[in-house]
Amino acid sequence: MVVCGGVDLAARPYRPTGIAIVKSTSDLRFELLHVSEVYSDEEIVTTLVRYSPVAVAIDSPLALPKRRGLREVDYAVIRAGFRVLPPLWSSMMELTVRAQRLVKIFENYGVEIIETHPRSSIKSSNCSTIHELFSAVKLSIPRRISQHEADSIVASLVCIYYKCGKALVFKATDGEIALLPRIC
Questions:
Q1: Is 8 exposed, middle or buried (0-12, 13-18, 19+ CB in 10 A)?
Q2: What DSSP designation does 14 have?
Q3: What pLDDT is stored for residue 1 in this prediction?
């Protein structure tokens, strides 16, 4: 059994951040344990830590490029046909700085942090929509959810596939981005 968290992080704490916790069995059967929108860093951390995840995947760059607008790992993802936003855009810089703060907090709890990109993960899964993805992995969603919550669930799924060694991973000297493998 693996319990993973997913975060669709907002750059600013007055905007909603989607968070999710998904549990999987060794044969990759999934159960949604929690999904919600929160705002503060404290709400993100306390909600996720309550479920003792082995790792949390965050939809945010975890590092800024050393020069120019993109990191080497961003170029690798782009070469594979996926889109990412430049981490040096002002709103992306705010997002990255917030993510870096959260990484330090989660490290104190012994929680591994993974960088992901839910929109690219849906594309890499070969599913045409997020609903097709959830159906393909037989993940039951108990209520209507926001886009932030949906993206956090995708991030949780990426985290589980990553921990099981089945994620599509792009590595470079300046970072690593995990996406979903082909599912549909």
A1: buried
A2: T
A3: 86
